[in-house]
Design brief:
With about 425 residues, this protein is α+β, with helices and mostly antiparallel strands. About 55% of the residues lie in helices and about 20% in strands. A 6-stranded mixed beta barrel has the order 2-3-10-5-7-6. Strands 8-9 form a two-stranded antiparallel sheet. A hairpin with a 2-residue loop joins strand 8 and strand 9 (about 205). Helix 1 crosses helix 11 and helix 2 (about 20-60) runs antiparallel to helix 9 (about 270-315).
């Protein structure tokens, strides 16, 4: 049996080499299909690592308190453009109380808006981040010059502003900004600080925004009393579960929510770990869906292989008749033509894998060159799966041509012109 397989494989290789151009064109569908699947899986894993690394860089000991109730495995109402007003500045003061929530290192609160900032003849549309004096303790970020606003300025509705790097560049260029006054929605604000360039982290551009005391944004710019959300930094990851319980108890008491009556919370709390798991689930689903779409080209490639093998059977009818006349069995011909189909798809799969891995590596190099923390990920299981799938395509689509060749009548085959 081994000698038959060896001989059939040798004949299959010779047959493919005899028509190199046609063999390569036949492989193209498999090359593209396998290469696309490897590329999508690798790039998807790299993109996933980028997102998860950025979330992790913010800190896995962070909790996000959002207004409105939502299931932990579902997006919050804000993600669907719904405004919920159940979180207030007084809630922040309650959570800030160490007697109620003892494991808190810092809290950053937010009231977001958008608007036009202007200085002299220059103007720029940007995000207005109303926040508090503890912002940098929670979110990080360094000052390039000047200072951040204080708790006293926050309480007194002071009209002071700290510029993000992009806003400073758009309005002032290389000119000095500290001490100047800009207008935000027609209100005049004194610039007290400029942030260092930070870039994009977890889908947020930290440079394209201005920072204003949260009470000033609420009362003067937006005219609202509610907060958009708050981020709570916990002193240790091991204390996260207890901190969640403490915050839930504090806010339920503040909002007069009776646990015994089964009332629903009008807020939700998300941890950094939950955010990572949610993003991981979403990106995995998208990655596998795209890989399945790319795999459809393997079916097209398989049909092309079946057509070429049928042409090959017609062209080699006399050869098949001669082999049968000298004693070749149906099984021998089946094995030969199946091996030819499998060899084509395996070679195509190998080339596709090499091409997919190389392209993925180039993508990771470019991403890292652009200062994104992008991991190059190609798992052995994806390579093995690529080889198995390509061989399986050859086997499946080679059965019909091989069966047709094995059933040819030797006498009729020898008479074939």
């Amino acid at each position: 049996m081994k000698s038959i397989l060896k001989q059939s494989f040798s004949m299959a290789i010779k047959s493919l080499l005899a028509t190199k151009a046609r063999s390569f064109l036949t492989m193209l569908g498999i090359i593209i299909g396998v290469g696309a699947v490897i590329l999508i899986m690798s790039v998807g894993a790299g993109a996933q690592s980028l997102i998860l690394n950025q979330i992790e860089s913010l800190g896995t000991n962070l909790l996000v308190v959002l207004p409105g109730a939502s299931e932990k495995d579902q997006p919050p109402p804000q993600a669907m453009g719904i405004t919920v007003t159940t979180l207030t500045y007084d809630d922040y003061l309650s959570v800030k109380d160490p007697a109620k929530v003892p494991n808190v290192m810092g809290i950053a609160i937010f009231s977001k808006n958008v608007g036009t900032t202007s200085w002299k003849s220059a103007s720029y549309d940007t995000s207005i981040s109303g926040t508090n004096a503890s912002y940098r303790d929670v979110e990080g970020g360094n000052l390039l010059e000047g200072r951040f606003f204080t708790e006293e300025e926050e309480r007194n509705l002071s009209k002071v502003v700290v510029l993000g790097a992009t806003v400073k560049k758009e309005l002032f260029g290389d000119s000095k900004a500290i001490g100047e006054f800009i207008k935000i929605k027609k209100h005049s604000f004194e610039i007290i600080g400029v942030m260092e360039k930070r870039g994009n982290v977890a889908f947020q551009d930290y440079d394209d925004q201005v920072f204003v005391p949260v009470r000033t944004v609420q009362k003067i710019i937006s005219g609202v009393n509610h907060l958009g959300f708050m981020r709570v930094k916990i002193n240790d990851r091991e204390n996260i579960d207890q901190a969640i319980k403490d915050i839930e108890f504090t806010l339920r008491d503040k909002h007069n929510i009776d646990d015994q009556s089964g009332e629903s919370d009008d807020f939700s709390i998300r941890s950094g770990n939950e955010a990572m798991q949610l993003f991981e689930t979403v990106t995995n689903s998208l990655k596998y869906f795209l890989a399945m779409m790319a795999a459809l080209s393997l079916i097209v490639g398989g049909i092309g292989i079946m057509n070429i093998m049928l042409v090959s059977v017609t062209e080699r009818t006399r050869e098949i008749g001669l082999r049968k006349a000298v004693g070749a069995k149906r099984s021998h011909l089946m094995v030969q033509f199946l091996l030819e189909a499998i060899t084509i798809t395996l070679f195509g799969g190998v080339i596709g894998i090499i091409g997919g891995v190389a392209t993925s590596y180039i993508v990771s190099l470019v991403a890292n060159y652009l200062h994104y923390k992008w991991d190059f990920v190609v798992t052995p299981s994806s390579i093995i799966a690529g080889l198995i799938v390509s061989a399986g395509v050859g086997l499946f689509f080679g059965i019909y041509p091989a069966n047709k060749a094995s059933k040819l009548d030797p006498i009729s085959a020898l008479r074939h012109e």
